[in-house]
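Inputs:
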Amino acid sequence: MKKHPLRLLFLVVITGLAFVVQPAYAAKIKVVTTLTDLADLVRNIGGDKVEVHSLATGVEDTHGVPMKPSFVPLMNRADLIVLVGFDCEHAFLPALLEASRNPRIQKGQPGYVDCSEGIAPVDVPRSTDHSEGDVHPYGNPHYMLDPVLAETAIHNIYNALVTFSPQDQATFTSNRDAYLAKLDAKISEWKAEAAPLKGVKFISYHEEWNYFAERFGMVYFGTVELKPGIDPTPRHIEELITSMKAEHVSIVVREPQFPEKVPAFISEQTGAKLVTLPIMPGGVAHTDTYIEMMDYIVTTMVRATGK
Amino acid sequence: MRILAVLILFSCLFLLINTAFADEMSELKEQVKTLTQAVQGLKSTVESQQKEINSLKETSSQSAALPDKTVPSTVVAPASPLASTPPAGAATQEQIKEVNAKVNKVIEAQKKSLPGEFNPAIGVVGETLFSYRTRGSAATGSDRPGGFDIFQRSVELNVAASVDPFATGYAVINASADPITGEANLEVEEAAAQTTSLPWNLTLKGGRFFGEFGRLAYIHDHELPVVNRPLVLDRYIGGESQTDGAQVSWLLPIEHYVNFTAGLGDKFGDPQNNPGVFRGGKELNYFGRLSTYFDLTPDWQVETGVSGLIDPRTVDRGGALVQPDGSTLSEKERRLAGMDFSLRYVPLRDNQFRSFTWGNEVLFSGNRYLSDPDAIPDSGDEFSKSVNSTGLYSYLAYKIDREWTTGLLFDFLENEQNMRDRTYAYSAYLTYAISHWNQLRLQYTHTDHNAISGLRDDDAVYLQWTWIIGSHSHGWQQR
Ligand SMILES: [Zn+2]
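Outputs:
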């Protein structure tokens, strides 16, 4: 041994390399998603071929997931980063991507999976400065609350998984088709269940429900926030209450990450029913999957109409 | 006067860029509108053709070897029960593809019409300090006058973009008023390129930038949690940790977050190194930081690090440093070590409305000087001595709601040239963030000097107004 320290070193290096190289084909596809709804979709399509981590746990604001350094090693090893897009994750994702030192998941790379691809955003701001608030610069990013648009996200995730691992395409295809069949059945169910929501007027804290309202025929009357990301002025609340009374707005939606005080006050002043609705799975109890969350939202909304 | 001119110049430049975009934007918006209407028409046709496609799909065998990128469901909504329009004639896959291509073009056009897609992201930060200090500058040692003072501390232009697929570049140009003359100094605070795709978890930064040391030394004035940079950073580093140099940052390839940064530069903070006539490697500044992070609970975080800075041979940096007793010191070696620790409460659910930070840094300075008691060079009484001094700051920041944050700051400082000269400062502040880009801060500071310094205790009240227009990035280092 003494005579061959170099040979020993060589052996160690080779063994080390074998360990490094081996997982490249044996391991699961490492996927990091920004939000829990996307993680659920990836799990459903990827099945046991993927290992999924969501940065958000479900209770966060979609625009305000804390930028934890503990996310960095996760993203450093990720094969794919799956995100909502439309700058929804502007407050935390760009810096985390920079810190991740992972060239494969940077914007423009195949590992950067923007689920908004193919979705036409609504409410694109007319001005290019911040007079319209800052959190929706490319239009409203909350399309995941429309289950039909969620299918576009499913397609984008499916494409990314197939591109990354073409040999698993058959698995991904059958998983996707099974999930889409389940989701389509659910969409029919929700549509039937949501019939009483047609024409019902509601407000919410943050501008979160544009796509949902359009899908289920509700009238999105306004928001507690003055602009997306900017808290209301007393005058805005006053005007909102006056117009809500005049227009018979019957539901006030509060997303769990926002304080209850102002929505409760508006509900009290107008007689509109106050409900708390999650914006991603895990936001409230019993909403662990995307389908469970949509179930919860539709049921709660219908119940709030009292019909 | 000159600062006003620069301000106006910046504003004009910004307006110009904005209007140019606004024109283009409205034009593009019109186009998009027309196209959107066309697409609506196409959309209903496509939906009605869905059933036809489904039957086509069934007949064609499982031959699709490529991912179905061409058929996003927004447009086609496959088998969606909500797409209930009856079929209106036959359609081929080709036609669908064509329609989809058109739709995607519209969407892409809409996305690209926002500024920053091809041009650098541009932003301007303005920061004005209105203050009242009970004693004049001779008694406080400050470079600002006592009594009422209005100080345009920054007019900062930020520009950033990708250089190529391998690097990003940015520049921060600041037109700040000279504290003594009041004249505007146009200074390049930072202008650096940073790699984006180096292997082995490495990032390389080069140019002029704020080198990594501790936690607040590399944060721009207007982004500090308090009005003024903590005394210890001002004294030991010289304000911002600006350097002309290069810095390598390495993320350790382990499951736990550990980051190591090392760099070298021609200067580090202020004052600059005297250039000398010929330099070996000893006249450069070498610096580094090792940092890590722990999630105590999902809501409580700890981040901590150690930093070091050494310039093994400084050539009388800052010139002859005159002491209150008339003697002088010339710096021969610069040595600085630091420890930083911050504890944060960032509730997952409502961190935009509630949070808490306790931030601390302790710095140890061990500079070596040539002391000259009679201040006459080469008179024979000179001797070499090292001064070991310590300084620290500790602050609390408590976010009460989305707009309001309040906090306390404690400063302790031993003069790095005379450790018996100690300063204590106590501050309380209240920050009102009208929005993300518009912020007011009110701060009260009491400063206790001691007799050796020749300075006198004083009180000061500051009102700081900071605003940002245009692009504002959230870099990892500035988090
Ligand atoms: Zn939003």
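Remarks. Chain B has a mean pLDDT of 81. The CA atoms of residues 422 and 450 of chain B lie 6 Å apart.
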